[in-house]
Specification:
With about 260 residues, this protein is of the alpha+beta class. The protein contains seven helices and eight strands; from the N terminus they run αααααααββββββββ. Helix 3 crosses helix 4.
């Protein structure tokens, strides 16, 4: 749970003022038992509420205060009862009740305003974090584009690998640097492998698979990778394997495949 976001939502103020349904109150009480930070925040809110009422409130009986704070969701019914009693009580009683209700409403508005302020600060913080992440991502993309341009300038042959049903949006390119006898794998939109598994690139020479490299996509720089160079390759496949030392590809875990059309 994101505790800061939960506190900033204002649900603790609504709980302190008894504005929640039974179901929402139960959910809050569950979180109070689990998270000391949430419990401490509620205690601070309750203390602030008590201090405000003592400093500015009209003296009333404990029972009346309890009724107002714990039954505010039945305010319409309470107002009806007050209207029935006004005909038999002095006008000062009615004024006192109005002052109490006005005080409760004022406290509610104060806490609502505090919640809006916290939400605004939280939103601004999130925006700054997203802008920083975007800047980092943009820098990574610029570096990748420079790397890709440098690789393709040296490569004469390119083999396209299309994604299978396991990764229909994934695409890979095998770039051959014939002069320097190097092979580069370029990956686009491959899913991050789960823990304990690794992608393997296989080259088929005379229908026999040869493992020419593994990768796990731990960082954006892993999307352009130098692999073992093999000559006269008929085609390539990429599989997801649990054991990096496996010598045969698991066909059911194939994520992309492609043929070297120059050798067909």
């Amino acid at each position: 749970m994101d505790i800061k976001k939960y506190i900033a939502s204002g649900i603790l103020e609504d709980y302190a003022l008894n504005l929640l349904s039974e179901e929402d109150r139960y959910a809050v009480e569950q979180n109070l038992a689990k998270y000391p930070e949430i419990k401490a925040e509620l205690e601070a809110i309750q203390e602030a509420l008590g201090t405000f009422v003592q400093a500015h409130g009209v003296p009333v009986s404990d029972k009346l205060s309890s009724d107002i704070l714990h039954h505010i969701d039945q305010l319409e019914k309470a107002e009806t009862q007050v209207e029935n009693e006004i005909n038999n009580h002095p006008i000062r009683t009615w004024v006192a009740v109005l002052l109490i209700l006005a005080l409760i409403f004022l406290v509610y508005l104060i806490f609502r305003n505090q919640r809006l302020d916290r939400n605004l600060v939280f939103a601004e913080t999130q925006l700054v974090e997203q802008q920083n992440q975007f800047g980092t991502l943009r820098d990574s993309i610029d570096i990748l584009l420079l790397q890709l341009e440098a690789v393709r300038e040296k490569c004469e042959d390119v083999v396209l690998l299309k994604g299978t049903a396991k990764a229909p949006k994934s695409i890979a390119f095998i770039n051959y640097d014939v002069i320097n006898q190097k092979t580069f794998l370029e990956l686009i939109d491959f899913p991050i492998p789960p823990a304990g598994k690794q992608y393997q690139l296989w080259a088929y020479v005379d229908n026999d698979p040869i493992k020419i490299g593994g990768f796990d996509l731990n960082s954006p720089s892993d999307t352009i990778i130098e692999m073992l160079h093999v000559e006269k390759v008929n085609g390539f496949i990429i599989t997801l394997e649990e054991d990096a030392g496996i010598e045969q590809p698991t066909q059911s875990e194939m994520y992309a495949f492609g043929r070297n059309k120059k050798l067909e």
